[in-house]
Amino acid sequence: MGPYHRTDAQRAKDFLQSREYEEYVEGRLGVPTVTRFDSANDLDIYVPTDVGDGWYLEIKEKIQQYTKRWLLLDGVEERDIFIIDELTVRRALLKYPKVLFLIRDNVGDADGPRLFLVPLWELVVAPRARVNRVKKGKWIVDMSKWPRLADEGDIVEAAEAHLSTGMWLAPACLGYEEVPQA
């Protein structure tokens, strides 16, 4: 099976929808921001803070169900799979740990979009498969254990709560159950 190719019209529609959602999210934050939506080398939103260096928000969406070729994680249903560019993750690592990913899943729930606010330190340790798609590295990750968010208006409070905990330094496997001891 060859690579899936999107038409120019499909790419243009995706870009417009993504930009509308990015601008919507920026408006919902309710704090001063610096946006870099057009940058190929930076994260979407920088939120400066009075204390520290501020933090970054990268916005991603799942806009269609994935075909069987992407079901590479044993026991993980399609609704809980998300595909992200490895290059985006590597760029985010340059600003570690002050990066959070807002993932809007538009197809995983019949009742409407599911929102996930995923700290970078949870994304990089999530169960995943790595593949190349048309010479671009992709991560297929399991969203089922990620923190959910009720509304985009909750991002700032949730981000600051995540960042204030220092959880990226915790020795435990975040979001995962204990293995029973023999």
Spell out the key features of this protein.
globular; 3-stranded antiparallel sheet; alpha+beta; 4 helices; 6-stranded mixed sheet; 182 residues
Output mean pLDDT. Answer: 89
H/E series: HEEEEHEEHEEEH
Strand content: 25-35%
Q: What is the β-strand count? A: 9
Q: What is the 3D form?
A: globular
Low-confidence stretches: none
Count of helical stretches? 4
Structural class: alpha+beta
Largest sheet: 6 strands, mixed
Radius of gyration: 17 Å
Gap between N and C termini: 45 Å
Trace the largest sheet across and list its strands.
1-2-3-5-6-9
Proportion of residues in helical segments: 10-25%
How do you describe this structure in short?
With 182 residues, the chain is α+β, with helices and mostly antiparallel strands.
Describe the structure in your own words:
- This protein has 182 residues and is of the alpha+beta class.
- The chain contains 4 helices and 9 strands; from the N terminus they run αββββαββαβββα.
- A hairpin with an 8-residue loop joins strand 5 (99-105) and strand 6.
- The longest helix is centred in the N-terminal third of the chain and has 22 residues, at 8-29.
- The N and C termini lie far apart (45 Å).
- The model has no long low-confidence stretch (mean pLDDT 89).
